[in-house]
Every structure is written in C-alpha cells, then in structure tokens.
Amino acid sequence: MSRNRSICLADNDVRHEIIRSRVPAETPWVSLQCDFRMVQRWERALGAQYPRLSVGPRLQAVAAKLRQPFLDWLNQAGETETPLVWWSSRLAECNTHLPTLFHQVCYLQLALDLVAEHPNILIFSDSAALLDSCRDVIHNADVTRLDSEPESALTKRLIRGWARYLPHAIKQIIMARLWAPNLDDSLRGAGDRPRVLLHTCIDESYFGEDGASRDRYFGDLPHWLEDNGFEVVVLPWVNNARRGWRSIYRWFRNARLKYVMPERYYSLRDYLWAAGIVWRQRNLLPGRHELAGLDITRLVRHMCRNSTSEMPITRPILYYRLIEKFARRGFRFDFYIDVHENFLQEKPQVIALNEFMPATKTIGFVHYMAPPPLFLSAYAHTNRSGTVPFPQRIVCNSVWFKELLERHGYAPERLAVGPSLRFPHLAGAKSVTAGNADRNAVLVIMPLELTAAYEMIVKLIAAFRSESELLLLIKPHPMTNFPQFLETHEFGSLPACMKVVDGNLDIWLSRVGCAIVMASTAALETALAGVPVVVVGRETALDMDPLGWFPEQSQPVVQADEINTAIHDIVRDHDRAQGKARAWARQHLPQLVSPISDETMQSFVT
C-alpha cells in the first residue's frame, strides 16, 4: 500500500459535517454493522456525493469461509472458565440472529479486503473495537480514526440497564407472590404418575379461552402426555403477552395444566446474585486471541464488556437458583423437557438439574425445520459434548435434521427422531398446497429480529411502492408487536398494495401464489408446502437462510429491484414455478418432516 491511500474509520456518533470536512467527496463508504437503519441514516446524511458500497453477497462469502475456523476456535474457548458464567454468556452462545463476535470477525476480514481494493474508503461501525482492530493492521496508508467517546455510550447503557433492574425484580416478586398459583404441596415427593416439567415460551396466542393451551412449539405434546399417564407441570417463559400479569396469573390458575411461576420462588438476593454472574462475564477469555490470521483480541474484550449491560441475560441465569430451590423443597420431576436451540436460555437449568436433581432426565426438542448454515449456535461446542450442558436426549423433528446434527459432531446416541410438532399441516397426507391460489397474492413472512424486519419493510416499500397488479400480505412474526414496530420506526401508512394479516401460516400459504421471506426458518416451511419462495438477503448482516443447505434453490436477492424482478418472474410464469415448487416439496418431505403419532411422541419419555 502506498502512502497516498486514505482510510477513514468512523463510529456512528460522529456528526456528518465532520465527515464531510475530513473525507473528500466521491470517497466510497461502507457500513459494517448489523443494523440496516445505520445504512439508511448515512445514505441520507452523505447523499449521492459519497457512493455506498453494497457488500451483502461479499459478507456472506466471507462468513462462509470463516464459519468453520470460528467454530473450531469457539469449541476450544472457555474450557477453564466457571461453567455457569461461561455457558450463560452471549460469547459462548453465538446466536447469530443477534450481533455476535462472529459478525465482528467477518466485518474485520471484509474491511481488510475492501481496504486492499479501494485507495480511499470510509468505514462506519458501531463497534470501537472493530475500528481500532482495523487501524492496528492497516499499514502504508493514512488512517484517520474519528470517534465521539465510544466508551461513554456503553457506560450510559450500563447505567440505564442496572437502574431498571432492581425495581423490575421487586415488581415481579410481589406480583408472583400475590397472584401466582401455589403448587408446593403437589410437587413434593413422587406423585402417582411420572411428572414432567415442561419449559416453553408463551405469547398471547397461547391463552385459549377454554383454559386449554395452544403451544406454538410443543403443539399437542402436553395433552398427549396427560392422556398417556403423565403429570405435566409447565414452567412458562412469558414473552410478548398483550394482557397484564394479573390476567396471565388468573388464566394459569384456571387452566387445565399446572403452571409453576419461577418469580414466586425468587428473592431480591437471587436477582443480585444473577447480576453478579453477568458482571463476571466481563472478564471471560483473557489473553491474546487469533483466528484465521486475524488478531481478534480487541473484539473478544469488547464482546465481554458489552455483555455487562444485557440485564435480560439474568432471567435464564436465575433458573439455576430456581432448580436449586426446587430440590431443597423436595420437588421431584422425572422428566424435564425444553426446546433445544443451543441458546444460553437452556444452559443454566441443565447445569442445575445435573447438580441438584440428577435423577431427572433432560430432553431437548429441536422444534424448527432446519437451522441456516450461518446460524452458528446450532453447531457450536459439538465436539466437546461431554462437557457441554446438553440435554441427555435431543429429539429432532426429522430424519434430515438428525443426520445434519450428526455431521456437525453431535453424539448419535444422544439424538432421536420425534414428531414435527410445529408442522402438522406438512405431516399430513395432503401436505403440499393444492387448489387455486391467487397468483397475484404474495405472502410476506416477517422475521422476528427487529432490524431484519426494518430492512425487509424498507426494501419492500422501495420494490413495490407503485405496484398495481400484486397484493402483498404482510404477516408479522407472532411474537412481535407489529403496530408498535411500524409506529416506532415511523413508517406511516404502508403502500396501497400492502395489507397486514394474522393467523396461521399454513392457511395463508394455501391462498397465495408465492412468498417473500427474510431471516426465518419459514423459508423452508414455505418451500415444503409447495409454494414458490423468494428469500431476501441482508445488506450488512448474515443471511439466516435454511434453504442454503439445498443448492438447487435460488440464491437470496438483496436489492429492491431484484426482489421486484424475482416476484414478477414467478407471477408471469406461475404454472411452471408452482409445478417446480410442488415437485421439490414432494421429493424432500419424507426426510424433512416426521409424522405425529404415538410412536414418535414416545421419543420424549423413553
């Protein structure tokens, strides 16, 4: 590199007037951060004088190259750390639906590639550690580092998080002790039936008017267990319930199943203890770290420091204390069933059950259709499964998924094939959508992650603002408050061709000619229903595309004009596109969907 090269590294808080005064016009720029809102912000601030580099496909290529080296590094990390502190950390979890260390490593490599190609470039990021890491390794160039006290932002976020934490904890304790069901007497000792503790995530759709649960993840499993001689006690993780807590507790008291509320057993001391575990995560993985020739030490340190402001992490950490309290009170459970996504929300209770209730058999259920290749938490830590707090049995919802996990290092004896509980419409005899759907109707399946949802809406508006032939049916993720999302991001009224809908996905798939999906396993569900699907790729984040395992499927499209073209191509030759989609579905359904029967249900309790 020659010295006439000029590289500017800037964080998001630098004023655009300073950028304009320090960076010549016509300098290309790139945003290396997950939040697409920052791309929009800098485009508006800099205007056409500063061309933006579109790097979505290149980022995916870099991620694919670094995927296995990163997993190898992560599998060896944390071996000397305290188990509960390590396994409950964002660093160990590596949930790439959220910003992770893996994102930062990919951004660092991509930044170095771009610097080698462009004599002058402007790089934005929300990570001071990433920008400083770039500055450390860029030589023979004039490097300008523009920041605005980045540590102050972390400090402010930390203060806000801790300031809300204890008042929230006190409120939760008081409400649970006033209104939550008291099951102490019925849970002590062995019951007359085998007892199952079922941990499940509950949103507003869960609450049936007749007291029957509508479980999004486990379907009819709780009622099947009750009908087959088991006592089911639900440990609820309530999220995005629109009703108030008093109404929630009232429903639990009158429901057909039993519900044990963790907050009823916590004390303020437990919340302080959990906060201490989060604080200790700040010092994880000391020393120097290198991956694929990159010095990632700054990135590791930033990830650890940043986690101290994530007070929601304390919620699963508290489960360790909950299980300990259950054991001390003499509660007994024969089985513990939870989802298995390899998230930190699953680890503390497994650690505690192994320690305090070793007779309880732990079962994890892989509820979703398939993990995208870049959904790294699904593949992390598998080559050290003897020390990882995995459940004793992992029930997969298809033969294909079981084989995928085996290929990625899961012990075969730990895995079993169970039912596809979330997809009864695909497990039936007439699972492939048939009939006369409206070919001009397009189902838009929104992602859960909010920055992905924002990017999706922005691109759809740009692609179909003046659309007159198509009707886009916007189906929000059931665990998001979509009206609030639209209001928060000031979208105003959607274009006339867009209509927000709710209800079950399978119903809408039978009514449309094709679908648009971003960052959701619903892409594979749609394809298996025989509906043509267009996957939208991310601009500055990782593509969460489960169809990435199937090379015959089309690659994600990124730009608004590409989305428009892909949809109109399907509509224009709909009979051919639909026939191709249905043939693919019939070919792959036997391996990707498992029947719901007494035999497959038994995989949870044998």
Summarize the entry for a quick read:
This protein is α/β, with parallel strands linked by helices and 606 residues long.
List the helices and strands and how they pair.
Elements: E1 6-11, H1 16-22, E2 29-31, H2 36-46, H3 56-76, H4 83-87, H5 90-93, H6 101-117, E3 120-125, H7 128-137, E4 142-146, H8 150-179, H9 184-187, E5 195-202, H10 221-227, E6 231-238, H11 245-254, E7 258-259, H12 268-280, E8 290-291, E9 294-295, H13 297-307, H14 314-328, E10 335-339, H15 347-356, E11 361-366, E12 393-396, H16 399-407, E13 415-417, H17 424-427, E14 438-445, H18 450-464, E15 471-475, H19 482-488, E16 498-500, H20 505-509, E17 512-517, H21 522-528, E18 533-535, H22 560-572, H23 574-592, H24 598-601
Parallel strand pairs: 1-3, 1-4, 2-3, 5-6, 5-10, 6-7, 10-11, 11-12, 12-13, 14-15, 14-17, 15-16, 17-18
Antiparallel strand pairs: 8-9
